[in-house]
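Archive transcription. Copying these from loose printouts into the bound notebook so they stop getting lost. Printout 1 of 2:
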Amino acid sequence: MSERGDAERPERPTREERVDSVIRDVLGGRGMRSGVALGRLVRSWERVVGAALARETAPVSLSGGQLVVAASSPPWAAQARFLVVEIGRLANEELGRDAVRSVRVVVRPEAGR
């Protein structure tokens, strides 16, 4: 306690930051960027892989440049694995940047729509 009897309060930062600077820092973080990119891929998945494959697969994560795609069954996973280079290229075209460096396909029955 201080001499006045008040509980000690943490000091306020001496440097004030503009709100837009803080928002830019948060939105510019790697996790946020990959989340936004994944959301864009989810919405445009049919354009990336075509209608048939889009019905049986879905992008489920994008982290560290690796896009994970879930397929509804082993045969659909095999088809997607055959196309991983093309999926990565088209995903990057859709995103307008090289966010996807590799594509990994996993089988998850709930992926089929």
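Printout 2 of 2:
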Amino acid sequence: MRLLCLSNGHGEDTIALQVLKALQQHPQAPTIEILPIVGEGHAYAKAGFTIIGTVKQMPSGGFIYMDGKQLAKDIQGGLLKLTLQQLKTIRQWAKDSKPEPAIVLAVGDIVPLLFAWQSGLPYTFIGTAKSEYYLRDETQWHPRDSWWDDRLARSTGSVYYPWERWLMGRPKCKANFPRDRITANQLQQFGLPAYDFGNPMMDLDLPSETPTIDLAQADPLQILLLPGSRPPEAYRNWETLLLAVQNLVEQVPDRKLHLLAALSPELQREPIETALTQANWKLTAPDTFQHTHHKLTLGFAKFTEYAHRAHLTIAMAGTATEQFVGLGKPALTLSGQGPQFTAAFAEAQTRLLGCSILHLENPTQTAPKLQDLLQTPDRLTAIALNGQQRMGKPGSAARIAQKLIQILRQL
């Protein structure tokens, strides 16, 4: 048995890895190979998986749908040639897999889903990019500024557009795994093979019990900093986060802070440390900076550890913010210049994650928002319950892996 995994972004790679690692533990595990459609798949390589075909980091980092200028940059950077090469690789893999049972696992949005369909093989889809929570909660539709967004969603009846549902309903599409129950239920209304197995991004290697958050008593108050994973955007986001930290240092001088910077391995150390030095943080030990009585620690590939330790996050990231919220903790978010974490992205994320997100218009709002949070314990209780409801409980990866094995056996 063989499986080809297609994913289109750093967050999608992380989610796919949870499922692939669960597959490896199965006594009848298939041979697993990977084709990252976006980026170079460093996380896969580090985990020991085989990457096939041509991979390349594009200027947009995979966010061409947010900005037409990014699409132009990617085309200049060889996007069309790369796409044709990757489609050729997928079709060749499908041909070489015969006569073994083989399946394609698409993780992300319509792009890997479309590529999976093009393979001609049976395929499955883990939908990470869309949720009904973007449109509504369990009781009502969200009010939107754009009449087009509301009208299109309401008229089609789902956050997934008709052409996406068409791909999800092809006979060769054996299973769809949306990210939450509300989305699975809606897709099932259209007769699609959708399974409410939970969200693999919550299968973090964390202790089974997350300690109760007591922001008022925490000393020091530990704050996770999430600048995102894609350069050069992450470097710009980092500078914005440091402005937010400076606001806390100035406006909450008596509160001892420990900032935990969870940095992607894709990022370089030099621009991160340069920005810290320019913001008057002094290096006191390897990866440790000091500013008066406050401490800031850099951690490359330490998100899991830092997410558990932190009481809240100041974030300009996608998947990592969602995972943190899923632990029942609050997130303060700031808009950036993009291409990912724009004002539109931040607004959509607020709809997705509900009351767990406190969006800031600018860094000067950081201290007032934090002080407000410290004074409303009932709000923290609601945030804890909301995060777990929206993101689900751990164990999704194992459930999806078991279903993939079942499908492969039946081919």
